[in-house]
Specification:
The chain has three domains: about 5-100, no CATH class; about 115-200; about 205-245, no CATH class. The strands form five sheets. A two-stranded antiparallel ribbon has the order 1-2. The chain has eight helices and ten strands. By secondary structure, it is α+β, with helices and mostly antiparallel strands.
Length: about 250
């Protein structure tokens, strides 16, 4: 069996945009056709472009999966009664379904170009991943959690932000709540190892590395508290007001 690599596939689809009179975007095996439609003539032109794509696919034996093709109207005032058609794998014309939202390259687009659905989806997914991390580890220090958070959770929240950039306060607060929860999880996971009972419960009390981390972390906190204190005796106008002083 001959394995067909990506170079051969890209060679086959390299001339696909040339057969369409309009804007065509191709990424891997996804193809999107954009067209401004405000009259019956422009609707016919878009249908002609779809017919040309079907002829191209039939010539190169790369059939489109018409059952998975969708029509998304950005303008809600557009005529939704008009049905576009494409050839399916059996050679029959089928009407393409019209949708109000569609996921493209892991980003959910809606007809009103608002991204509440996408933001809600990535928020729920990030929360599930945080719960999975919290329940999958008996012990986790700060460095471990930061590595896992930056590798798994943070990419979910930052993927394609140039497309759906936040501008509503409610959406900003929603995504910031994920990081606040992650901070609490980190503090909880990190401080539980300071309690001797928790260490014994995890069976780690005899591990010298764990004992050393507990000792150094507690010592660092004690030194920070004893070394600095807030000078509350300063008054307004005093140069030492609000500063830290050594004990």
């Amino acid at each position: 069996m001959v394995r067909r690599g990506p170079v051969l596939f890209l060679t086959f689809i390299n001339d696909l945009p040339d057969v369409v009179e309009g804007i065509v975007k191709v990424f891997a095996d996804d193809c999107k056709v954009y067209s401004k439609v405000s009259s019956d003539y422009e609707r016919c032109k878009l249908q002609e472009n779809l017919d040309r794509l079907c002829e191209w696919s039939d010539m190169w034996k790369l059939k489109f999966n018409a059952a998975k093709c969708r029509v998304l109207h950005i303008n809600p005032d557009n005529d939704l009664q008009y049905r576009y058609t494409m050839l399916d794998e059996s050679g029959n014309f089928i009407a393409l379904s019209t949708v109000k939202e569609e996921k493209d390259l892991a980003v959910t687009f809606r007809s009103n170009l608002k991204f509440e659905k996408h933001i809600s989806d990535i928020y729920n997914k990030a929360q599930r991943v945080l719960s999975l991390i919290h329940h999958s580890f008996d012990y986790m220090d700060q460095d471990m959690f930061l590595t896992i958070y930056k590798s798994i959770v943070r990419p979910l929240l930052e993927y394609a932000t140039c497309v759906w950039s936040l501008y509503l306060k409610k959406d900003i607060r929603k995504l910031e709540s994920v990081q606040r929860r992650a901070t609490k999880t980190d503090e909880k996971s990190y401080t539980t190892i300071q309690d001797e009972g928790s260490v014994e419960a995890f069976g780690l009390c005899n591990d010298p590395k764990i004992k050393f981390k507990i000792y150094t972390f507690s010592l660092a906190i004690d030194v920070a508290i004893q070394r600095f204190s807030l000078d509350a005796t300063g008054t307004r106008g005093n140069s030492e007001s609000g500063s830290f002083r050594k004990i």
